Protein backbone atom coordinates (compact mmCIF):
# COMPACT_ATOMS: atom_id res chain seq x y z
CA UNK A 1 0.00 0.00 0.00
CA UNK A 2 2.85 2.40 0.70
CA UNK A 3 4.05 1.97 -2.90
CA UNK A 4 0.67 3.08 -4.21
CA UNK A 5 0.61 6.06 -1.84
CA UNK A 6 4.15 7.01 -2.82
CA UNK A 7 3.25 6.75 -6.50
CA UNK A 8 0.13 8.88 -6.02
CA UNK A 9 2.14 11.56 -4.24
CA UNK A 10 4.87 11.40 -6.90
CA UNK A 11 2.36 11.80 -9.73
CA UNK A 12 0.49 14.67 -8.08
CA UNK A 13 3.74 16.44 -7.20
CA UNK A 14 4.70 16.05 -10.86
CA UNK A 15 1.54 17.81 -12.00
CA UNK A 16 -0.76 14.86 -12.74
CA UNK A 17 -4.44 15.82 -13.06
CA UNK A 18 -6.18 14.60 -9.91
CA UNK A 19 -9.59 14.39 -11.61
CA UNK A 20 -8.42 12.32 -14.60
CA UNK A 21 -11.32 10.17 -15.84
CA UNK A 22 -10.85 6.70 -17.33
CA UNK A 23 -12.34 6.10 -20.77
CA UNK A 24 -14.06 2.83 -20.00
CA UNK A 25 -15.97 3.48 -16.77
CA UNK A 26 -15.42 7.19 -16.24
CA UNK A 27 -13.67 6.63 -12.92
CA UNK A 28 -11.28 9.06 -11.28
CA UNK A 29 -8.30 8.10 -9.09
CA UNK A 30 -10.51 8.94 -6.08
CA UNK A 31 -13.22 6.51 -7.25
CA UNK A 32 -10.63 3.76 -7.67
CA UNK A 33 -8.96 4.44 -4.33
CA UNK A 34 -12.32 4.33 -2.53
CA UNK A 35 -13.45 1.22 -4.39
CA UNK A 36 -10.20 -0.53 -3.39
CA UNK A 37 -10.24 0.92 0.15
CA UNK A 38 -6.84 2.63 -0.17
CA UNK A 39 -7.17 5.01 2.76
CA UNK A 40 -3.69 6.51 2.45
CA UNK A 41 -4.15 7.16 -1.27
CA UNK A 42 -7.54 8.77 -0.61
CA UNK A 43 -5.92 11.10 1.95
CA UNK A 44 -3.26 12.11 -0.57
CA UNK A 45 -5.80 12.73 -3.33
CA UNK A 46 -8.03 14.80 -1.05
CA UNK A 47 -5.06 17.01 -0.12
CA UNK A 48 -4.99 18.22 -3.70
CA UNK A 49 -7.01 21.44 -3.76
CA UNK A 50 -8.49 20.53 -7.15
CA UNK A 51 -9.86 17.14 -6.09
CA UNK A 52 -13.58 17.00 -6.88
CA UNK A 53 -15.37 14.51 -4.61
CA UNK A 54 -18.67 14.85 -6.51
CA UNK A 55 -17.57 13.61 -9.95
CA UNK A 56 -19.82 10.78 -11.11
CA UNK A 57 -18.53 7.77 -13.03
CA UNK A 58 -20.36 6.24 -16.01
CA UNK A 59 -22.82 4.57 -13.62
CA UNK A 60 -23.44 7.77 -11.68
CA UNK A 61 -21.42 6.74 -8.63
CA UNK A 62 -19.38 9.24 -6.65
CA UNK A 63 -16.44 8.40 -4.40
CA UNK A 64 -18.89 8.47 -1.49
CA UNK A 65 -21.04 5.81 -3.18
CA UNK A 66 -17.97 3.54 -3.34
CA UNK A 67 -16.96 4.26 0.26
CA UNK A 68 -20.49 3.38 1.42
CA UNK A 69 -20.67 0.30 -0.79
CA UNK A 70 -17.42 -1.04 0.69
CA UNK A 71 -18.75 -0.31 4.20
CA UNK A 72 -15.63 1.66 5.11
CA UNK A 73 -16.51 4.25 7.76
CA UNK A 74 -13.00 5.74 7.77
CA UNK A 75 -13.27 6.53 4.06
CA UNK A 76 -16.72 8.02 4.55
CA UNK A 77 -15.42 10.24 7.38
CA UNK A 78 -12.60 11.52 5.17
CA UNK A 79 -14.94 12.28 2.30
CA UNK A 80 -17.47 14.02 4.54
CA UNK A 81 -14.76 16.49 5.58
CA UNK A 82 -14.78 17.67 1.95
CA UNK A 83 -18.51 18.51 2.03
CA UNK A 84 -19.72 16.21 -0.73
CA UNK A 85 -23.23 16.46 -2.13
CA UNK A 86 -25.05 13.73 -0.20
CA UNK A 87 -28.11 13.31 -2.40
CA UNK A 88 -26.48 12.48 -5.74
CA UNK A 89 -28.20 9.44 -7.23
CA UNK A 90 -26.44 6.85 -9.35
CA UNK A 91 -27.96 5.13 -12.40
CA UNK A 92 -29.79 2.73 -10.07
CA UNK A 93 -31.42 5.73 -8.37
CA UNK A 94 -29.42 5.21 -5.16
CA UNK A 95 -27.76 7.85 -3.00
CA UNK A 96 -24.73 7.00 -0.85
CA UNK A 97 -27.13 6.71 2.10
CA UNK A 98 -29.18 4.15 0.16
CA UNK A 99 -26.01 2.13 -0.48
CA UNK A 100 -25.12 2.20 3.22
CA UNK A 101 -28.62 1.21 4.28
CA UNK A 102 -28.65 -1.64 1.77
CA UNK A 103 -25.35 -2.93 3.22
CA UNK A 104 -26.73 -2.54 6.77
CA UNK A 105 -23.74 -0.31 7.49
CA UNK A 106 -25.24 1.33 10.56
CA UNK A 107 -22.16 3.35 11.53
CA UNK A 108 -22.05 4.85 8.04
CA UNK A 109 -25.79 5.52 8.05
CA UNK A 110 -25.33 7.44 11.31
CA UNK A 111 -22.41 9.43 9.85
CA UNK A 112 -24.38 10.38 6.75
CA UNK A 113 -27.52 11.32 8.65
CA UNK A 114 -25.52 13.39 11.14
CA UNK A 115 -23.83 15.24 8.27
CA UNK A 116 -27.07 16.20 6.56
CA UNK A 117 -27.84 19.86 7.03
CA UNK A 118 -31.22 21.41 6.44
CA UNK A 119 -30.82 23.48 3.29
CA UNK A 120 -31.41 27.20 3.53
CA UNK A 121 -34.36 28.13 1.36
CA UNK A 122 -33.96 30.93 -1.15
CA UNK A 123 -35.67 34.16 -0.15
CA UNK A 124 -38.65 33.67 -2.46
CA UNK A 125 -39.45 30.31 -0.85
CA UNK A 126 -39.73 31.66 2.68
CA UNK A 127 -42.68 33.15 4.48
CA UNK A 128 -40.80 36.13 5.83
CA UNK A 129 -41.51 39.71 4.90
CA UNK A 130 -39.27 42.70 5.35
UniProtKB/TrEMBL annotation:
TM ranges: none
Keywords: ANK repeat, Repeat
SMART domains: ANK
Short name of one Pfam family: Ank_2
PROSITE patterns: ANK_REP_REGION, ANK_REPEAT
InterPro entries associated with the record: Ankyrin_rpt, Ankyrin_rpt-contain_sf
UniProt repeat feature ANK, residue ranges: 25-47, 59-91
Keyword Repeat: yes
Listed PANTHER family: ANKYRIN REPEAT AND PROTEIN KINASE DOMAIN-CONTAINING PROTEIN (PTHR24198), ANKYRIN REPEAT-CONTAINING PROTEIN-RELATED (PTHR24198:SF165)
Official protein name in the record: Uncharacterized protein
Protein's organism: Diploptera punctata (Pacific beetle cockroach)
Amino acid sequence: MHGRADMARFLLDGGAYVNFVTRTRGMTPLHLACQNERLTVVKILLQSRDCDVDIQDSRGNTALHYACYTNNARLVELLLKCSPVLDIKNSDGKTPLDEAEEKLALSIVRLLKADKVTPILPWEETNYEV
